[in-house]
Write a structure and sequence with these properties.
alpha/beta, Isopropylmalate Dehydrogenase, 12-stranded mixed beta sheet
């Protein structure tokens, strides 16, 4: 197995949510199987120690002063960069907690851009709590795109589980707005990024893409809408002309059957829930949010802060463990490809 060029940086997320406990649980789970890659959490050594003690999680916290110390510290516990901290107050979101989450994310981005980290794994944040302290981004994906000096449209969200990868072409918008936001150019642009990402970050030499229809029965020859004929089919034709293996438009009710999933490496979906419902139905506790199209590697568990269960020991760390493992796999894939 190829060694990582540098450890992964894990941002703390909202300390009032389940981020701290799933980080601890994921590290314990990965370490018990010998599969924990070199990594460090950006900030919160005392916060994480308090969380571990309260929930009975056997995960020694090893404060470090520099990311370069993480590889050695991993042998005895979870390395935590000791430059930021705060109290552990589960299910009690606050402005101070949002500031800690933002500072951790900013430092994680600096570390990966400077080469001190090989990728970043982001724990869940509350967009509302961050907005209340003046944060002006739709989400962490857009923040990281800005940190890399890339336009938002080049940062493509892909949800990945053991048996399915999906990409929503439109994300956090009202369903009524989706038809007005779709275009053949948007589909082509994002499909190119997805295909390149599957090759560079997942080692798939000839990625196969399936493109979902927007309307029931793919519009039924215009009876239920014309977006398939007017926008989606021309985009697919253009992508095929470039040599990409693309199928569709595939009706949404047929795209995610076991037989259909064997025919593609990623499904491009027209709107948020079309992509996330099947992924979460199949792999809720293993789903990973992957950002494609950026010069850095970024993954995140595909769930939110879950304030309602924070601090109760109920949060499943599976998705965080999967996000850490997938980030390491992506780093190794890029190294093999020389990217």
């Amino acid at each position: 197995m190829t060694a990582l060029s540098a450890p992964l940086a894990i941002s703390l997320g909202d300390p009032a949510g389940i981020g701290p406990e799933v980080i601890l649980g994921a590290w314990t789970r990965l370490g018990s199987g010998g599969g924990a890659p070199p990594a460090f959490v950006v900030g919160g050594p005392e916060l994480l120690r308090a969380c571990a003690e309260a929930l009975g999680i056997d995960c020694p916290i090893i404060p470090i002063a520099d990311p370069s110390e993480a590889a050695y510290a991993c042998a005895v516990g979870l390395p935590v960069l000791a430059l930021l901290d705060g109290p552990w107050q589960p299910a009690r979101p606050s402005a101070d907690g949002a500031r800690l989450a933002l500072a951790s994310l900013e430092w994680a981005a600096r570390c990966v851009r400077a080469g001190a980290a090989s990728g970043v794994v982001t724990a869940p944040v509350s967009k509302g709590a961050l907005a209340a302290i003046g944060w002006d981004y739709p989400g962490q994906t857009e923040f990281l795109a800005d940190a890399c000096a890339r336009p938002y449209r080049d940062a493509v969200m892909m949800l990945a589980g053991p048996a399915l990868r999906t990409v929503p072409l439109t994300v956090h918008v009202a369903l009524a707005e989706v038809p007005t936001l779709l275009s053949a150019e948007l589909i082509v642009h994002k499909a190119r990024i997805v295909a390149a990402g599957l090759t560079r970050d997942f080692g798939i030499a000839q990625p196969r893409l399936a493109v979902a229809a927007l309307n029931p029965h793919a519009g039924e020859q215009g009876q239920f809408g014309d977006e398939e004929a007017r926008l989606i089919a021309p985009a697919i034709a253009a992508l095929r002309a470039e040599g990409l293996a693309v199928t569709g438009p595939v009706p949404g009710d047929a795209l995610f059957t076991p037989r259909a999933r064997e025919t593609y490496d990623a499904a491009l979906c027209m709107y948020h829930d079309q992509a996330l419902i099947p992924l979460k139905a199949l792999a809720f506790d293993e789903g990973v949010n992957v950002t494609l199209g950026l010069p850095i590697i970024r993954t995140s568990p595909d769930h939110g802060t879950a304030y309602d269960i924070a601090g109760q020991g109920k949060a499943d760390p599976g998705a965080m463990a999967a996000a850490i493992a997938m980030a390491a796999q992506m780093v190794r894939a890029r190294a093999r490809a020389g990217a």
